[in-house]
Model the fold of this input.
Amino acid sequence: MSGAELAQIAVNAVLLSGILALVALGFSLVWGIMNIVNLTHGAFIVMGAYLTYGMHELWHVDPFLSVPVSMAVLFCFGFAIQRVLINQVIRAPLLATFLLTFGLEILIVNLLNFFFKADTRSVMTLYSGSGFTVGSVRVPYIRLGALGVSILLVLMLGAFLTKSRLGRAIRGTGMDIDAARLTGVKAPAIYALTFGIGAALAGAAGSLLSMVVPFDPNLGGGYTERAFVICVIGGLGNVVNVLIGAAVYAVVEVFVGSRVPALSGAVTFGMLVLLLIARPQGIAGKSAS
Amino acid sequence: MKRTLLAAAGLLLSAITALAADTIVFGAAISITGKTAKEGEYTRDGYQFAIDRINEMGGIKVGGKAYKVELKYYDDETKPERTAQLIEKLINEDKVNLILGPYGSSPTGTAAPICERYKIPMVEANGAAEAIFSKGYKYSFMILSPAKNYLRGVLDTILKKDPSAKTLAILGENEAFSKEVAQGAAEYAKERGMTVVYDELYPTNAQDVSALLTAIKGKNPDVILGSGHLQDSLLIVKQAKDLNVSPKAMGFSVGPSSPEFRANLGKASDYIYGATQWTEALKFEGDDPWKTPKAFGEAFRAKMPNYKIIPYQVAESAVAVIAYQKAIEKAGSIEPTKVRDALAALDMMTFYGKIKFDSRGVNIYKAMAAEQYHADGIKYTVWPFDVAEKGAMYPMPAWDKR
Done:
């Protein structure tokens, strides 16, 4: 392997990890705070992708500018779903939320299939495919932009969770719901807010992905899976863990992908299994006890 | 009173069976959702189009009696294990007469042993992996050219334009059909004196192939071939452009032939070659309701105006129904084993090409074709050379020089 190729692989990994971090961020938040493994996450991502696609096709909105719009729409959607549906089963065993979010995922994907057909879509802009070259390393503008947006959102979420009253209320509810209640936190509202933020982040990830990969209503499943692996690798608890998980995942996927691509799935999941045995709380996570 | 009621019920029952007996029902499990949802839609539309046409022409004639034909299908969600369950259900519960294949080699591979077990024939039009037919099945028939031939035409076209094209990189999806396509292309390239500098498989549902493309870029090949499905081809072109991986020619087994290829890539699809089982430019004179590729295309568009370009999956699926029609008429029976024997002996010309099966049940007698997108946004048949609509454009300019 030449130095130039190694450099390109490293850059690919960095660019990929940004977008993967954003994919996993909302998933990790919902899981960490509410103890819900949200299988609808992938469907939210696809909704974000379709929103961006729709705005680009209809009104020629630049895909990067549509990110806030899909975040807002998905926030409202997620908030409503949590209030109306998930709150009903949040105290039930894990299986109930599992089934509910699984069912929702199927429902959303089938509705998207119905309205948008199974046609593969891509968002193509004038700058799609262009980029700049440093030495022999190629950096596509869109991927760089996606990385920038991801970093911005990760930082904003981190700041929100640690600095703002509402953010602290969210974290407090995640740590000890009874104690949080005693201090006057309204748990159902906090849960809905958390779920809304999770959905909004998924929407942002979908908007960015729509520029990077061709998609159809079935895109989401694979990303729910990736988000899950990243959360397990990094560990739950805070934003940094997600970044670590995404970085490790991206390095493995890109590196193995360039040498023995047929094995990249086996290697990632093999790593997951080993990690669960050796360090079940994740690379950076704190153990539960 | 009771007796009359019973008699009436009996009458009604026999009326229903009589009605059912006048209809031949084809069962199919097709990917209406999932990864190959679009291709599944083409498959269904092809089946339905041929079935409607046969009914318009009075149905299938068996010993002086005309049978209406009907399609009963379920969505297999692009999950091969689901396909197997559905085929079993179609045979056992729905009591369909005959089976039409699913979309894709993996689902076809799981459907074949079920048909074998129940001794119900399956004519399949969308599973080109020969591995399915190496197991000695007697009831499965492949209407299309096998996977290993897919990219030959593309290589022939490139090598005619530039005999000095020497190096080839292949990236393929890690599943039965695409693997055979890749192997076939590599073998043929070596036969023609090329060197395969990169040959790797990526996982099904890959969302990122930039790692493979980076490795390929390091080898600087003259030609890059991809063997996967539509979404993979789109992803490879997009990311090749992102990373400025610019070979002299680029071709794919599946993808360019669908209208969505251009719709998704726009100008980026210029210069790209695609393998295809069939195009409207081919010249055949067939013994079927449409006779020529051109007439088939026109008739299909008239009925389904949302199709501007007709993907080959539509044609091959339609011709599978025609093969059944011919075989049933020849057998003079709708008995599955007799239809099977008639299929095995079938030798006919159609708008789609020759239909004849070797001892395994593979139609090795039909050739592929190759197409290329030109700058006017239209894809032209560039191979076989004798029916080519236009000469190939070569070489492909570098992405950053366009």
Observations:
- The interface with chain A takes residues 32-35, 37-38, 40-41, 171, 174, 200-203, 205-212, 214-215, 217-218, 230-231, 234-235, 238, 241-244, 260, 263-266, 268, 399-400 of chain B (CB under 8 Å).
